[in-house]
Amino acid sequence: MFSIVSMLVPNSPNSHGVSHRPACSSCDSQIPTTSTLNLTHPSAPSVVEHSRTTKQPARPRCLPWLISLAYPVARHLLLPLYFRRIEVSGREHLPATGPVIFAPTHRSRWDALIVPYAAGQDVTGRMLRFMVTADEMTGLQGWLIRRLGGFPINTRQPTIAALRHSIELLQQGETLVMFPEGDIYRQCRPLKPGLARLAVQAEASQENLGVQIVPIGIQYNKPLVPWRCTVKIRIGHPLKVADYWAETPKASARKLTAKLEEVLRSLSSPCYGEGMKNEG
């Protein structure tokens, strides 16, 4: 939802299937990257241990009127115009209340619009709080992302304040969006551990918090997502973080990451992808 015009800029995958932004400074400045948190960095601290001594980050000032305008424009105008068909299944699995982390696969920059289409505020009544890399939160683009509910994170050196803010959002029962693969890939890739580590720390920060992770598989029938292609979104059953508790937080995160990866692969299974290849 962040920069609607920028979503029309195609991505070019490299030999490993990773999509990078075009080598164009004007295009590059327009396209936001929503990324997962890198809690594996040596400087990434424990939010639970340091929460009382950390200066809090500036709170984003969301604009309800902008959100109520942007989401319907994308849903009823931009996305139907660009895509031939958009299919969503599994909306019955979306939690109505409580802290939630949406964990979508990342196949295109269109995902930033597809996730709200499938499970955004105009569907569930819940605002989506996208975690966005800090270098994409500058100028007019940064202002727009913040007003739509996004917030920045330095993935190379995450600060205690930024991590604390993410946990506070979950403590307040909000919905975060983090792409656990960490970048745009054409096929399923091993997940980064950051999402699970954040979820485990949040669950440990407050008794019976009840954090849930909702896996979302996004599949396009053409890898480069050209004009009039088809997209299918499959929403899986929520994973309750407390069900994956182990002897240590790190072991809990590994256990949770493994399960999330298994579910995301099933939501983007080869047979599902093959079925789409025969369309259009």
Describe the structure.
The chain is an alpha/beta fold and about 280 residues long. It has 10 helices and 11 strands. It has helices at about 25-30, 45-50, 65-80, 110-120, 120-125, 140-145, 160-170, 195-205, 250-265, 270-275, and strands spanning about 10-15, 20, 85-90, 100-105, 130-135, 150-155, 175, 185, 210-220, 230-235, 240. Strand 1 and strand 2 form a beta hairpin. It starts with 11 loop residues before the first strand and ends with a helix.
Compact overview of the structure:
This protein has 280 residues and is of the alpha/beta class. The chain has helices at residues 25-28, 47-50, 64-82, 111-119, 121-124, 139-147, 160-171, 194-205, 249-267, 270-277; strands at residues 12-13, 18-20, 85-89, 100-104, 128-133, 151-153, 175-177, 184-185, 212-220, 230-235, 239-240.
Radius of gyration: 18 Å
Q: Please tally the β strands and state the result.
A: 11
Task: Supply the helix-strand structural class.
Answer: alpha/beta
Residue fraction in strands? 15-25%
What is the N-to-C succession of helices and strands? Answer: EEHHHEEHHEHEHEEHEEEHH
Which outline best applies?
globular
Q: What share of the residues lie within helices?
A: 25-40%
Straight-line distance between termini: 26 Å
Contiguous helical run count: 10
Q: What value does the average pLDDT take?
A: 80
- Describe the main β-sheet briefly: 8 strands, mixed
In terms of per-residue confidence, which ranges show pLDDT below 50 for 5 or more consecutive residues?
Answer: 1-16, 18-38, 40-45, 47-58, 271-280
